[in-house]
Structure formats: C-alpha cells, structure tokens
Amino acid sequence: MSAHSQTEQRRLFEEEALALIDRLFSTALRLARNEADAQDLVQETYLRAFRAARQFQAGTNLKAWMFTILHNAHLNQRRNRGRSPIESDSDVVEQAAADPGRALTPEELLVRATMDHDLQAALNDLPEPFREAVWLRDVEQLTYDEIAGVMQVPIGTVMSRISRGRRLLHDGLVARTDRFGSRTT
Amino acid sequence: MKTCRDIEPLVTPCVDGEANQEQEQTVRRHLDVCAPCQVDVAAQQTARSVLSARASALGETAPAGLKIRCESLVSSQIAHPGRRLAFPFPKRVGWPLALAATLVLAVAGALAYGVARPVEAAAAQLALDHVKCFALFDQPAERRAADVRNELRARHGWDIDLPDEAHAGGLRLVGGRRCIYLDGSVAHILYKKGTEPVSLFVLPPDTTLREGHVEVLGYSAVAFRRAGRTYVVLAHRPQADVVMLARVFK
Q1: Are strands B219-226 and B196-202 parallel, antiparallel or unpaired?
Q2: Which residue of A has its CA nearest to B57?
Q3: Helix (H), strand (E) at residue A136
Q4: Fewest CB within 10 A of the end CB: N or C in chain A?
C-alpha cells in the first residue's frame, strides 16, 4: 500500500472513531457514573485507540472495538484507584440478582410513568456487569457477539447478564414509580 | 416438559425477538404453565421497552472541551506539529514586582480553587514554583540530560527519565531542582524555549493528578501520566503551545 493511501486510511479511521465520541461519552457516564471520570475515560480511550490503530482491522466493527477499549480503560481506572476489580459472580451481585417478589405492571403504564431521571437512577443502581450489558444491548444496540467481545466473557454470560439486568432494572423502576406515587391505575 | 432452568438461556433472545421459531415455541409452552416465569419474562420485556423507548433521551453529548482534547490526539497532529513554536516575548523588566504580583495571584488562585478544583490548585502551586525557581536561580546556557539525571539521583535519590538533547524538541535543559510543592517531593526540571522558561514537574509515584489541561493566571499546565508517574508541563503560553511542548516528554 502506498504511503499516501495509508495516511488517507489512517485519517478516515480517526474521523470515524471521533464520530463516536457522543456514544462513548454516554457509555462512559454510565460506567463511571460521574462526569469527570467519564471524560478521562473517553480521552484515554482515544489515546489508546489511536496508538493501537494498526491493530484495528479495517472492515470490522469500529464501534465495538472502541467500546472494548473503553471497557478496558474503565477496568484500569478502577484498579488504579485501589477499588476491587469487578467480579461479576460475587456474592453481592448474586444477591442483587436474586430478588424475591416482583409486581406485574402493565408495560405501557410503566413506560409512560417512568421519568428519565428515574430511569437513569435505576440504571445507575444496577451492579456494573448488568448495567454495562443492558446498556450495550438496549441503548447501543450491540449484538450479543459484540458485547461478548467488549466485555470479554462468553456469549452465554452476556445473555444471562442482560436477562438479570433487565429484571433488576424493571424492579428498580417499579420501586421508583411506586415510591413517588406517579403510577396511575 | 422443559423446566425453568431449561428455558433460561432462551429468554434473552426471545425478549429481543432473536430466537428461532422452535426456541420461541419452547419458551411459550413453558410460560403457559409457569406463572413465575411468565411474570419474569414480562418484567424483562418491560425493561427492554422502557430502555429502547428512551434510548435517545439517555444519550449525552460530549462536552466541547473533551472533543477538542480527543481531536488533538490524531496522528497528523502528533507526527507533524505543524507550526513552529515562536515565543516573541517582550524583554522582561522589573522582575521583583512581577514576581511578587504573580506569587500573590498564584497563592490566591490556589486558595480560591481550594479542594473543589484540585487540579487548578495544583497547577497554581506549580506555577508559583515555576516563577520562583526561574527568578531566584541562575541558569546556565544548557546542561546535559545525563548530568541533570545523575545529579537528581545523587542528591534526592530520584530516578527521572529525561529526553536527550537531540530529542528535546528545541527545548534547552537548564537545570533540575527539588521544589517546595508537596513537601519537597516534586522534581522540577527547568527548560528554555528561546528565552522563555518552560517547566517539567515530575510528581512522586504515589501522587495522582488527573490528566488534562488547566489554565491558571495565564499559565497553561498539561498533566499526563507515563510509566506510573504524573508529569506536568507548564509555561506562560497558550494551552495549545504547551500541549505541543508536552509531547516531547510523552
């Protein structure tokens, strides 16, 4: 490949990567749950991505690739702060997932009753592996395969995290809409 | 008849509408006879609908400053800094007065920013050291990186990696000292670009300062981490210039 087209390819790669900045920032906010850390994460993600640009295979999914770097940068940020690394199958997570009774709420009612801030708060309350899996699936619309790549876990784990995450999110939303009395029957 | 456990792996694809016909039927047949699973699947469906419906509202726009910082990371800017750095500074007169004023301002800045803005406060402190060191100590025309490295190791036990003359991007190394900030644990490396002072601060390994750019009192500071240490490059120049200067050390 000529030097010129290599430069051109590199420029295109960077342009496409930079076009994802809002998606990455939204996801970083969901992971870090505060803006300063989210900004650091996004910057770190671009730094790593541009340094590793040659490892990206043209034609494969750039978005999933960038999300993988973001995911790893987030783990790194946590580790550097001395917080324990995320253990998806820790007791806390298991307990959080094994919630007992849940009310059956008509879907439309809940959709209508849910304010965005309730939804954000309920999302933020999810244990991280579930929060990330559900977010990547339902908001970023990644495939199970892509999510498995980003989170570096088997596809079965991805599905069970999505499943549990949605269940927990539902319960959190019900609790919130109940508490604030915004549910109309 | 399938048990709850059997259908569990099929629930997510079913809720997402990605299961095949056979899988879907298996799940439906189970739900017909299992109320708890019915409730559970309905809950998951609801959560998915709520999220999908609100997906666009949940998206955030990256702040403009962040965009600029990320755009500045592209290869074309790193490989070819583009314009030559020029420092057309007027000849400095009345050092003591200027120094006193800067000291007062820098301290005031540090206090005003306080704990709420630790990066700015740190930058203000470092700006203070920058002014003090360059004003109070005579600098030779140029020193060798190896000599300054050895001196810092011998005097303070620090192992600090400095770029060799050839790789310093037009920066002349004029000295290395211990500075007062953080109880004397910070190495202050003094450079000149033309006649203009440029400082490199190397913070102790256990100190973390958020990476980024800060402007305090006309000074721009760029903090970055390398090999587990925090470095800060500071000069009385616009931020873009200092960002480029910092690349020498990254």
Answers
A1: unpaired
A2: A116
A3: none
A4: C
Global pTM reads 0.54
Best of B6, B12, B45, B209 to disrupt the A interface (most A CBs within 10 Å) is: B12
The predicted pLDDT at position A75 comes to: 92
Q: Residue B66: which of A42, A105, A107 has the nearest Cβ?
A: A42
Strand order in the sheet with B172-179: B172-179, B186-193, B196-202, B229-235, B219-226, B212-216
Q: Report how many Cβ contacts below 8 Å link chain A to chain B.
A: 132
**B81-112: pLDDT as tens digits:** 333 332 333 333 334 444 444 444 444 444 44
Q: What is the pLDDT of residues B197-244, one digit of tens each?
A: 899 988 877 766 677 777 776 788 888 888 778 888 989 888 888 888
B56/chain A closest Cα distance in angstroms: 8
State the burial class of residue A81 (Cβ atoms within 10 Å of its Cβ: 0-12, 13-18, 19+). exposed
Q: Do A166 and B44 touch (CB under 8 A)?
A: yes
Residues of A in contact with B208 (CB under 8 A): 80
Q: ipTM more than 0.90?
A: no
Nearest-CB residue to A134 (from B40, B51, B211):
B51
Alpha-carbon distance of B124 to B120, in angstroms, equals: 6
